[in-house]
Automatic annotation (TrEMBL):
It comes from the Bacteria. One of its GO terms (biological process) is cobalamin biosynthetic process. CDD domains: CobA_ACA (cd00561). The lineage of its organism: Bacteria, Bacillati, Actinomycetota, Actinomycetes, Propionibacteriales. NCBIfam families: cobA, PRK05986.1. Residues 1-22 are annotated as: Disordered. It comes from Enemella dayhoffiae. Keywords: Transferase. This is Cob(I)yrinic acid a,c-diamide adenosyltransferase. The gene is cobO. InterPro entries: CblAdoTrfase_CobA, P-loop_NTPase. It holds the Pfam family CobA_CobO_BtuR.
Length: 204
């Protein structure tokens, strides 16, 4: 595939413009490094296009701020001050969802995950954002905290032009089947294998 041209054109009756301007469900899964990093890269592209960006981190510890979070929050402020790019809303389950009356007091992770997904559903119904990054979202599904049938149905029925990117290992087969874009990160080598801990600027 050269210069973004597809290998084949389906006989679906759609114009090139209609086919191009279709909201995508993307999944970044696998054992390798880079799933979230790639999703946040898409968020940067979306911000440049002026989209409203929403990031929901479903597993990360709220006390651990990664570099992409700082960068995207800063870009959100740039949008507020200058109008450049798009708005950014970053939610971290471990820090307590921002709409909760009491943040960071709930120890039931399953309940927090369900509440986070309920908020995503509300925003999808309201067509609130152009791009949703559901980071580490495969795990609440894998652990049985969320019903995969209901998740797939909600994503399939989302209205308007809303891209969704899901990250995490062990993506459920139903999600993989439904997705428009699936990338499987395969680990070949990793410094962790030789006992090296995570590095500043590489892991966070």
């Amino acid at each position: 595939m050269a210069q973004g041209e597809p290998d084949q054109v389906p006989a679906d009756g759609l114009t090139t413009r209609q086919r191009r301007n279709r909201p995508l469900l993307a999944i970044h899964t696998g054992e390798g490094k880079g799933k979230s990093t790639a999703a946040f890269g898409l968020a940067l592209r979306g911000w440049h296009q002026g989209w409203s960006i929403a990031v929901f981190q479903f597993v990360k510890n709220g006390k651990w701020r990664i570099g992409e979070e700082t960068a995207l929050r800063t870009l959100g402020r740039v949008h507020e001050e200058t109008g450049q790019g798009g708005p950014v809303d970053w939610q971290v389950m471990g820090a307590g969802w921002s709409w909760r009356r009491k943040q960071g007091t709930e120890n039931d992770h399953q309940e927090q995950a369900a509440e986070g997904w309920a908020e995503v559903k509300r925003r999808l119904a309201a067509e609130q954002h152009g791009l949703y990054v559901l980071d580490e979202f495969t795990y609440p599904i894998k652990w049985g905290w969320l019903d995969v049938d209901e998740v797939c149905r909600t994503l399939a029925d989302r209205p308007g032009f809303q891209h969704v990117v899901i990250t995490g290992r062990d993506a459920h087969p139903q999600l993989v089947e439904q997705a428009d874009l699936v990338t499987h990160m395969t680990k070949v080598k990793h410094p962790f294998d030789t006992g090296q801990k995570g590095q500043r600027g590489i892991e966070w």
